[in-house]
């Protein structure tokens, strides 16, 4: 039985048609407004949605946008009084599948739904063929990139990772194909690790290479600060690329969106990558230039580093930096934005996603809600839709004050990866506690599973210690009680290592509409 959701402010007058549809084995749920429809869609799924274009309050186009945020792939039929070209164009651009013109008849709805459902069935039937084609192309592309081992091929790795990420989202409900895709991800991450191991030293020591953490402010933020009276700099700590794709639809109504990408420095952890963003310096350079602000385990001086970088770049005007670490600070963010209306640059760090990743390994509830990558995406989407961050971004876009309405540079400092394979690391009690990277004076690790650095200065990391940086989806465990550590941390999200999921990051320019 196919399920139809019908949204019409005069739904009671459509009971006769609904009855006929149900006699044809369609289960129809009728609601009179957008909000009721969205509430139902959060709990249930439908095969087709019918939406009246003219409704009081939230009209048909608004309803389509709201629906797509919850069920982005569901086919939608819009019912209109006329085939006005401008309305049709807008509706198609919002993702409407088909149209019906009033007065509507029962047989019209049946034939339209049947055509859509048959097409969806056909598309789903072609999915294995289309994915097999992509799988072969991606495998060939990876082999080509590894054969070349070209330091300048970083852009091609970004494109490959974007395609892999989008396919993972398409296949989320296709168990067999998703299993095949996960094997592709594993093999591609192995090749990417080799690519980074061969080329990263060149990137950090020469001018040529991708945009790195140290370049984010100068490449993305400063040009907007020069062009505009004001700019916001929003860092969502620990945002994976697929998480960005999951929240992107929420912002499309409010902003013109320009997507660019950069590579995190190593290790892909906050004390290194975020401090590199805010200082414009590599870790060894921070330690040398600002020894009092450098720490292997903390980033409590990111504000001072940011102010210093702005001063060095001769950016004039008030600079504001704030962190959002809990619900209370999130709820108070709008007030802080208003209070900072005269600032040239407002920098905001939001820690929720990083907390979410780390809390998963300690919370049975979060473990159940986000057992895998798809679960993490769904939880991210749920959080963002209800978050104070989303409300602030809408507020900025809608503001009529030029001192508040301004471009937003949205990015992150590193991603995260679901770890599956343990590897033993040795070095005694002097080792750091991180699971995807460690440092210590006597550190030893399996070089097949991790990058071993006994000359960290080559990677522009501080001297006087050794580093081990995990590759692929490995995580470090100690030789004492290895089974205990393996059980505790297997299938947890971690960061700090070498992978596309941790290193290749979105940097988004949002221009208010």
How would you describe this structure to a colleague?
- The structure is a single chain.
- By secondary structure, the protein is α/β, with parallel strands linked by helices.
- Helices cover 48% and strands 19% of the residues.
- The chain is built from 20 helices and 19 strands.
- A six-stranded mixed β-sheet has the order 7-19-10-6-9-8, with helices on both faces.
- Strand 4, helix 4 and strand 5 form a beta-alpha-beta unit.
- Helix 2 packs parallel to helix 3.
- It is globular, with a radius of gyration of 25 Å.
Strand content: 15-25%
Radius of gyration, in Å, reads 25 Å
Report the strand count: 19
Q: Uncertain spans, ≥5 residues at pLDDT below 50?
A: none
Q: Helicity level, as a percent range?
A: 40-55%
Question: Layout of SSEs?
Answer:
Elements: E1 2-7, H1 15-23, E2 26-31, H2 34-41, E3 48-52, H3 60-70, E4 76-80, H4 85-94, E5 98-101, H5 106-148, H6 154-170, H7 175-205, H8 216-227, E6 231-236, H9 241-251, E7 255-263, H10 270-279, H11 283-289, H12 302-312, E8 319-324, H13 327-331, H14 333-339, E9 345-350, H15 352-360, H16 364-369, H17 373-386, H18 388-398, E10 408-411, E11 417-418, E12 421-426, E13 437-440, E14 444-445, E15 450-453, E16 466-470, E17 474-477, H19 482-489, E18 493-494, H20 500-503, E19 504-512
Parallel strand pairs: 1-2, 1-3, 3-4, 4-5, 6-9, 6-10, 8-9, 12-17
Antiparallel strand pairs: 7-19, 10-19, 11-18, 12-14, 13-16, 15-16
Helix pairs in contact: 2-3, 5-6, 5-7, 6-7, 9-17, 10-12
């Amino acid at each position: 039985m196919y399920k139809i959701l019908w949204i019409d402010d005069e739904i009671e007058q459509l009971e006769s048609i609904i009855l006929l549809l149900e006699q044809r084995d369609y289960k129809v749920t009728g609601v009179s407004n957008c909000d009721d429809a969205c509430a139902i869609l959060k709990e249930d799924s439908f095969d087709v949605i019918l939406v009246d274009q003219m409704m009081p309050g939230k009209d048909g186009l608004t309803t389509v946008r709201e629906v797509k945020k919850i069920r982005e792939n569901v086919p939608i039929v819009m019912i209109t009084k006329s085939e006005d070209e401008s309305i049709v164009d807008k509706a198609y651009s919002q993702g409407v599948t088909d149209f019906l013109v009033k007065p509507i008849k029962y047989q019209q709805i049946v034939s339209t739904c049947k055509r859509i459902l048959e097409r969806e069935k056909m598309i789903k039937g072609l999915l294995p063929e289309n994915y097999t084609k992509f799988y072969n192309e991606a495998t060939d592309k990876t082999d080509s990139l590894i054969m070349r081992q070209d330091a300048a091929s970083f852009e091609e790795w970004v494109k490959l990772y974007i395609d892999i990420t989008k396919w993972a989202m398409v296949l989320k409900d296709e168990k067999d194909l998703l299993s095949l895709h996960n094997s592709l991800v594993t093999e591609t991450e192995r090749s990417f690790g080799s690519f980074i191991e061969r080329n990263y030293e060149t990137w950090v020591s020469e001018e040529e290479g991708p945009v790195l953490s140290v370049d984010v402010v100068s490449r993305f933020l400063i040009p907007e600060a020069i062009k505009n009276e004001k700019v916001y700099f929003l860092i969502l700590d620990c945002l994976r690329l697929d998480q960005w794709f999951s929240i992107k639809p929420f912002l499309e109504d409010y902003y013109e969106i320009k997507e660019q990408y950069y590579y995190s420095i190593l290790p892909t952890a906050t004390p290194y990558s975020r401090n590199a963003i805010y200082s414009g310096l590599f870790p060894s350079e921070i330690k040398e230039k600002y020894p009092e602000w450098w720490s292997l385990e903390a980033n409590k001086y990111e504000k001072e580093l940011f102010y210093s970088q702005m001063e060095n770049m001769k950016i004039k005007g008030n600079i504001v930096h704030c962190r959002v670490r809990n619900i209370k600070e999130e709820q108070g963010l709008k007030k802080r934005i208003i209070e900072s209306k005269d600032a040239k640059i407002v920098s905001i760090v939001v820690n929720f996603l990083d907390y979410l990743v780390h809390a998963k390994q300690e919370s049975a509830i979060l473990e159940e809600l986000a057992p895998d990558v798809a679960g993490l995406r769904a939880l991210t989407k749920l959080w963002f839709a209800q978050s104070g961050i989303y409300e602030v971004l809408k507020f900025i876009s809608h503001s009529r004050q030029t001192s508040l309405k301004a471009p937003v540079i949205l990015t992150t400092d590193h991603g995260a990866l679901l770890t599956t394979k343990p590897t033993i690391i040795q070095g005694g009690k002097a080792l750091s506690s991180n699971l995807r990277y460690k440092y210590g004076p006597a550190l030893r690790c399996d070089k097949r599973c991790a990058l071993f650095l006994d000359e960290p200065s080559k990677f522009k990391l501080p001297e006087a210690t050794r580093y081990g940086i995990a590759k692929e989806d490995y995580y470090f465990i100690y030789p004492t009680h290895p089974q205990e550590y393996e059980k505790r941390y297997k299938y947890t999200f971690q960061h700090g290592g070498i992978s596309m999921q941790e290193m290749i990051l979105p940097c988004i320019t949002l221009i208010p509409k």
